[in-house]
Amino acid sequence: MVFFTCNICGESVKKPAVEKHYQMRCRGNDKNVSCMDCLKDFYGEEYVAHTKCISEAQKYASQSQGFAAKEPRNKNAQKQESWMDIIRTILDSSEYKLTPPVRSAFQKLQSVDNVPRKKAKFENFVGNCMRMPRNQATQVWDILEKELNKMKEAKQTELARAKAEKVAEIQRQQKADAEEEEAPPKKKAKVEATEDAAVEETSNGIASDFDWAAQLTKIVTKQSEGIFLEKLRKKLLKKYAKHLSVEELTEKQDKKFQKRFIKQLKLADSLQVDGDLVKIAS
Prior knowledge:
Elements: E1 3-6, E2 12-14, H1 18-24, E3 32-35, E4 41-43, H2 56-60, H3 75-92, H4 100-110, H5 119-129, H6 134-199, H7 212-221, E5 227-228, H8 229-243, H9 251-267, E6 271-274, E7 277-280
Antiparallel strand pairs: 1-2, 1-3, 3-4, 5-7, 6-7
């Protein structure tokens, strides 16, 4: 509950009693009150919109020491604030075409912090505390209920729209992921086909296979006592790179060379492998 201090007589007044105070105690004076918690001044009807103020913990917290009190979480207060928003929306709307008595009733409700949110309690409250006739209380409630249902429908529509957008985004992402998973193999297959073609192509563009057996025999023949396997591999690699017209093999080409080197060495009848040494077969 918000409390005010009357700046004319100094009396403390609860928010719902401000109107009565200026009708009885400070009659004839313009309304001029200040909030007892935040010390802010309000003139005329400005105090009506002041429905929530700082707590004592926040008021006396030492900001110089870097301490800031946490705002207490009050779900009931949040619901009540939403309820008061509905009342303010109705007053600002031209849809309902409020009669002067009904408009006056809504204006009085603005200054109350604990308006019930159930029909039976609401009618009892406004009848006992605000002296509102039963038929007028029912009329006010019907308008409140209509606005409340309209806000609920708008909220449900917004939630449904947000959910549909989220589902659509998930589907788009799944589709993109599926396309991305399919794309690399195609691209890879294309690259591999290009590299395989390059392996079999000479510098002048004419397709020609590398003569593995002849090149191996030629290198080993020059070494009367044989040649170490690793040295043979390096010499043949240079000839193979020259055959492809490249200075250095790609990773794919290198792997293919290593596999074919071992295979062709085993298939070469004119050569003999003795441990790490390769000789001409005797």
